[in-house]
Design brief:
Elements lengths: L2 H21 L8 H8 L24 H16 L4 H13 L4
Length: 100
């Protein structure tokens, strides 16, 4: 893989995690007025304490989408590629002790 493609893939993955962590406090809140009142404009990692869905998470933490992405990347890295069976096993293990 050439450096340009590799760099773009890395940027896409990192960007996905940053976006997930930024969105985590307001995830599941679909009313823009409620988001604005509770959080203002989301431009930094925020504490989700007023969001019942992610209470206990710290600013910059991932929501369940990001946690699943991380589980997928760890599975791919551990296998040297994608294995549906291995990922499925690791995904089910993640949910067994999930706190998000």
């Amino acid at each position: 893989m050439n450096q340009s493609v590799s760099s773009r893939i890395r940027g896409m993955v990192y960007g996905s995690f940053v976006a997930d962590a930024l969105a985590m406090p307001v995830h599941w809140i679909y009313n823009p007025s409620k988001i604005s009142t509770a959080y203002g404009r989301v431009e930094t990692y925020l504490d989700p304490s007023s969001n019942k869905y992610h209470a206990g998470r710290k600013p910059g933490a991932l929501c369940h989408y990001g946690d699943q992405m991380l589980t997928l990347l760890r599975s791919i890295d551990g296998q040297g590629g994608f294995s549906a069976e291995k990922f499925g096993h690791e995904w089910r293990l993640m949910w067994g002790s999930y706190d998000g």
